[in-house]
């Protein structure tokens, strides 16, 4: 199990880095929107490229933020039943969901998006608007990259829940409560 704990930490570091990139993209988007609004309403200057950059940065935030959200266990679920379950049952549900739902969809979307990126790159796809952004393949390349990150994050999420499951099962078999194992004897 020490190998799995090390692997979980490595995956968490990678996912934290992606989370930091997402935060940076969010700050850049806020600055971009602020500048766009000020220039449009106070100086009557309009930039289509800046408006398109807002959408591109928003795409970066959503696409890369998914992996970080999973790592932080911030994804949407029905908590009415889930919150009342034991830690081992929660871990089993999380592992089942990761293998049955997240991984197949992430692999399918990630692989199927590669051809779209390749086409956009080969045709040097750009905005149809005059003054818009060029090189749309760059933002499109984030689709397979983000799903690769989701796959990596899902593996980390699975390992985390496997470690939780094994820990609580071993504590249960040795009749030690998790609070006693952590040194909290109150």
User: What would you call the quaternary organization?
Assistant: single chain
What global shape is seen? elongated
The portion of residues assigned to helices is over 70%
User: How many individual helices?
Assistant: 7
Low-confidence stretches: none
Tally of strands: 0
Strand content: under 5%
Q: What structural class do helix, strand and pairing data support?
A: mainly alpha
How many domain regions?
Answer: 1
Radius of gyration: 22 Å
Order of helices and strands: HHHHHHH
Main beta sheet: none
Gap from first CA to last CA:
29 Å
Report on this model:
The protein has helices at 2-42, 48-71, 79-82, 87-122, 137-140, 142-173, 178-181. By secondary structure, it is mainly alpha-helical. The chain has one domain (2-173). Helix 1 (2-42) packs antiparallel against helix 2 and helix 2 (48-71) packs parallel to helix 6 (142-173). It starts with a helix and ends in a 5-residue tail after the last helix. The mean pLDDT is 88.
